[in-house]
Amino acid sequence: QKEVEQNSGPLSVPEGAIASLNCTYSDRGSQSFFWYRQYSGKSPELIMSIYSNGDKEDGRFTAQLNKASQYVSLLIRDSQPSDSATYLCAVAGGTSYGKLTFGQGTILTVHP
Amino acid sequence: DVKVTQSSRYLVKRTGEKVFLECVQDMDHENMFWYRQDPGLGLRLIYFSYDVKMKEKGDIPEGYSVSREKKERFSLILESASTNQTSMYLCASSPRGRKATQPQHFGDGTRLSIL
Questions:
Q1: Interchain CB distance below 8 Å, A94 and B31
Q2: pLDDT tens string B55-95
Q3: Which A residues, 43 through 102, put their C-beta within 8 Å of a C-beta on chain B?
Q4: Considering only CB atoms, which chain A residues are within 8 Å of B31?
Q5: What is the pLDDT of residues A84-97, one digit of tens each?
Q6: Looking at residue A67, what DSSP letter applies?
Q7: CA–CA separation, B60 vs B35, rounded Å?
Q8: Cis amide leading into A44 (omega within 30)
């Protein structure tokens, strides 16, 4: 059974702090990794894609991938109250017809 | 930008009705997906399609069927709606990746209530 696991939280951080969200996966053949943000009552929105080991930065967001340890993380620098949302980790193998396996999501709350 | 459009944001139907949820994408994506999302259960894949007229069952296909007659349109059908199908339904699409799976892009969702 392919699994993607996330700490459901809630994770609470003060405004301006770094929020660190973690995700582990069980399928060693996984090749594509994505982070989505979902506001309450809204649909998931893609914020980061990462395919290679190491870090990928986009503005205040950094995705980190370690395939040997089978984890992917998302760092949000200078967290803002508008970052309060559920963050979904999604993982895919190489021949999956585009299917993604989603984690349950981590609820992040950024308090002023 | 990718645009995935779901026909309704909110829908109320009665038990036993046949319900159609429509999804259209404008980016010529090969792959399309239908999920439902319920509190505490996360995103669950109902059906997906990787080409016109092709369909594959996801994790929870019972009580649902799909149709993909054109590349841009993927329809979800509740054959005989039941109250346990009250949920948020999400459509997504993605291009066929040459070397790696590409991300999915979601529509706004349809909140379906079955009374």
A1: no
A2: 999 999 999 999 999 999 999 999 999 999 999 999 999 99
A3: 43-46, 49, 51, 88, 90, 92-94, 96-100, 102
A4: 97-98
A5: 999 999 999 756 68
A6: T
A7: 9
A8: no
